[in-house]
């Protein structure tokens, strides 16, 4: 299965360039979920949500739709993966699992200043629930080591392939039975649209990855409403 969508859906600058004039904000998720087959929930990074939030979102999307959920920043940015068992359990108890079959991978994005520390990462991976797929977006060059990728493989956790306009290192290494890709903008972080040749190139990669397992691709070039348009363009290319 190939899932292509956007990182989030509530962006005022999308109203007009993407969301139709007159569409009320509460129906934006419903509208976007009829155009793409997956979306990252990003608000869960900033604060814990409630079961009612997740149930409401699930009710607004088609039956075969899947959400990826971004892990809480208290785990990744405050605790920096250190002694986070309680925080991880609290995150999942906040209602994430109420998405049921509409729950896709959970994304754990690490701060750029966090260096690779094998023992700390090993302890973090050990407390993640096995019933959920997980992906880690490391953003420091010290993670570019066989030991890091081996740890992820041992837990079937995906190393995120992130295109960040050179702002952060990119690791094109597959470590799980699925692939997780985040496209933040090829030329300018969060701001640049992907050209037709760039989308053709990404489409070829997506098709190759799909031969080995599920693929999740999320566009985070949210400024100027590029993300939804690029998601639709890529989906059209991969069929």
TrEMBL record:
<protein>
    <recommendedName>
        <fullName>DUF72 domain-containing protein</fullName>
    </recommendedName>
</protein>
<dbReference type="InterPro" id="IPR002763">
    <property type="entry name" value="DUF72"/>
</dbReference>
<dbReference type="Pfam" id="PF01904">
    <property type="entry name" value="DUF72"/>
</dbReference>
<dbReference type="InterPro" id="IPR036520">
    <property type="entry name" value="UPF0759_sf"/>
</dbReference>
């Amino acid at each position: 299965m190939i899932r292509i969508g956007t990182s989030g859906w509530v962006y005022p600058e999308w109203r007009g360039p993407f969301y139709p004039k007159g569409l009320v904000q509460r129906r934006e998720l419903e509208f976007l979920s009829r155009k793409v087959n997956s979306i990252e929930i990003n608000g869960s990074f900033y604060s814990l949500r409630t079961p009612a939030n997740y149930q409401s979102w699930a009710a607004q999307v088609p039956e075969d739709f899947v959400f990826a959920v971004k892990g809480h920043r208290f785990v990744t940015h405050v605790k920096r993966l250190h002694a986070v068992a309680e925080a991880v359990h609290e995150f999942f108890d906040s209602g994430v699992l109420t998405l049921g079959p509409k729950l896709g991978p959970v994304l754990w994005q690490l701060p750029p200043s966090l260096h690779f520390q094998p023992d700390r990462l090993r302890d973090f991976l050990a407390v993640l629930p096995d019933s959920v797929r997980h992906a880690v977006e490391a953003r420091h060059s010290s993670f570019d080591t066989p030991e890091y990728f081996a740890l992820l493989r041992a837990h079937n956790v995906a190393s995120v392939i992130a295109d960040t306009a050179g702002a952060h290192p990119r690791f094109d290494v597959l470590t799980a039975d699925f692939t997780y890709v985040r496209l933040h903008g090829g030329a300018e972080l969060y701001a640049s649209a992907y050209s037709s040749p760039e989308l053709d190139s990404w489409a070829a990669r997506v098709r190759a990855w799909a031969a080995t397992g599920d693929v999740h691709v999320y566009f985070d070039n949210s400024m100027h409403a590029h993300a939804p348009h690029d998601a639709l363009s890529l989906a059209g290319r991969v069929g």
